[in-house]
Structure formats: C-alpha cells, structure tokens
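Quick one: examine this chain and its backbone structure tokens and tell me how the chain folds. Here goes:
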Amino acid sequence: MSINQIVTPLDSAVLDSKEQYVFYHKMVDFVLKELIVKVQQQQLCNHQELTFFKQYCDLLLYSIEAMRIKYMYDEEDNMKVDLTDSGFPNYLEFRYLHNDLELRNEYIDRLQDTHSLKVEFLDTLLRKKEPVKKSRLFQASSVVYYSSVNQQYIFNRFVQGKIIEAPENSNANLMTSWSFYDVSNNRPYVCYMYFDYDGKRIEDQKEELYQVLKESADREMPLATMAYNIDRKLTKIFPKHIKRIDLGPLHNVFAKDENEITHAVLSGIGKKEIPLESYALSLKIDAIFSGDTFKEGGFFSKQTMQKWSDVIPQKYVFAPHRIIQLLHNKTPEVLNKLAKPPIQVADLKIDI
C-alpha cells in the first residue's frame, strides 16, 4: 500500500480496501494503548483520572473496531478518516454506527444464519477450490457486526462519567469526568472537574449537573468560557479545578494539514526515510483553577461566582525514537515549546 493508493477527496481519506482498514485499525489501536501506558508513566494524570481516561479510550477503540467490521467488505460505503488536524474517523462515522444499531433487530432478522454461511464458505473453499465472493464476505461481516456490536459501547458525541469523591489532596470534595467528540475538528477530548457542593446530597442535583455539562461543555472552546458557563448555571456547585485533555492530531500517512509535525512525518514517509506506518501523536492538557469569588446578578438574585486563573496549557508529543530524531532535525522550534521533551513510545510494525 502506497500513499498514492489512499483516496483523499477534500478533507477526508476514504479507506476502500481490506488492507487499509486493517492498517488503520492496527495503528489507532496501537497508538492509544501506548498513550495510556505513557500517560501513566509520565504522571500526566492521577490514578483516578487515568482510570477514566482508559475507559474513554476503550470506548473509542471499540467504536473503531466496529467500523472496521462494518466496512471491511462493503462495496457501497467507505469509512472516512479526517485529514485536517485529526487523523481520527470523521464524527459522522460514529453517528452512522448509532443509527445502524438503532435498527439492529430489524437487520438481524434479514441476515442469513451463521451456520449456513459457514457451510457455504467451507464448500466454496474446500470442494470448489474457489475464493469466497466479496459480497458473501460482506454478508458474513454484517452478521458479526449486528450480532456482536453493542450500541452502548459506541463513543458518542458526549459521554458522561459518574460523580465520585475526589482523590486525597484535591482542592475539592467531589469530581466528575466526561468526554466529547468535537464535530468541528473530529478529535476526542476528555475532561475532569473537581468541585464542592453546597447541599446535603449531590444526587439531588446530579441530573442537572449532567445536563449542564452536556449543553455547555460538549465542544472545543476556551476553557475559561467553559468554566464560567458551568459555574453560572449551577448555583449550588462550585467548580474548583477543570482539566481538559485534547487527543490529537494523530500525525500519520492518513493526515494532510499545515501542522509542522504532520508535514515532517509525511515528508519522511514520501522520501522513504521512515516506514509507511510511522506516526506521532500530539496531546494537549489545559487546566484552570478557581481562586477568589465575586457576586453577580441583581439585588434579589445575586450569585456567588468563581474567579478563574489563567489557563495553564501543556503540550506533549508521543513518538517512536526514529520519529523523535526526525522531528529534532526538522521541527526543533516546535519541540522547544513542549512541556516535556518528546515522549518515546514503541515502534509500530505492520506487514504491508
């Protein structure tokens, strides 16, 4: 598989062969699992944050595996990967999964049973000595897809985590997490909020909190704006610390943007200085803390609001050793702005 075999209309790369689906899935699966390990080793998240982070990554991986099964032998539709500052599937692919699985029972009733498919495939391969037709393979993959994929594990545009007690040494009593897939840049985000509650039972305001987060913190925006909106809409909840992790872009052969790291990786692949499966992953962690309070509103409706610190941005890059060398040579000024030197992850090896 060469770069020229990847179709790139507008801002999406269309995966249109079994080899490309396998290649892409192996890459994303490998990169996210490496990321989880390194985030823990580098202590970029505390233990509880890491647990939530892994859960959201698992949902993302589950969804991409479902896409692989869904599209592998489909001759009519192709999965699209966002090319611009992402490297992850286009958000619409997640919507398609949800829409498909809403009609799961209806589709299953129409599909051929697995036993008869196995008998047919064995007869074709062993007796007739012929390859199985792609249309029949699509039928088999559809059976696997609709019978095994669970809609509740698909990464949605907004995924809410539970409210729990904050870890020791936190500046608040409670914490919650959520994740969202931004529809404008097609990247996943993971957020954490540490807060105090001025009431007896947080369960009394749990649903309201969840609704506010879904309405006010479900897209990429200035973190100070997000913090203010949450604080203003929840009178008994006092946010103390909000942390947001931006996953991506994933710089790889499927990307095409003005990002200097992407350009360096693609240039290296094009000149055959590095293999086709080479990658780097950017990650950004923004944090904001509350300090003093102030009153806002009219005489009869004053509300205590938090004063927020400046946003503390921290940028990281994860890449194998050879790619780090390449970036030091081609983009040293970008690496100088990172919170830490590039964090080394393992090489990905795919037989092409």
User: Anything to note?
Assistant: Residues 160 and 178 are 4 Å apart (CA to CA). Strands lie at 12-15, 79-82, 158-165, 174-182, 187-197, 237-251, 280-296, 303-308, 312-319, 343-344. The chain has two domains: 3-153, 158-344. The chain has eleven helices and ten strands.
